[in-house]
């Protein structure tokens, strides 16, 4: 059950930020890296959008604090291991 409901939240930001870094490197060169501020902003943005704002207006979404924690964990994983 954990894999079915929470793995996508854990993997969301590493995938999104890796794709973003790929595009940035295509245009600006291989030395581009995302700063901790970029990663923190993305974590905050995803957490607020998908756990606070969307659940208020769309019944498809439900707010869950654990999802926000998993977004933050995914951001840390990206920043620590994939942002090279």
UniProtKB/TrEMBL annotation:
The chain crosses the membrane at residues 6-27, 39-59, 65-82. Keywords: Membrane, Transmembrane, Transmembrane helix. This is Magnesium citrate secondary transporter. The lineage of its organism: Bacteria, Pseudomonadati, Bacteroidota, Cytophagia, Cytophagales.
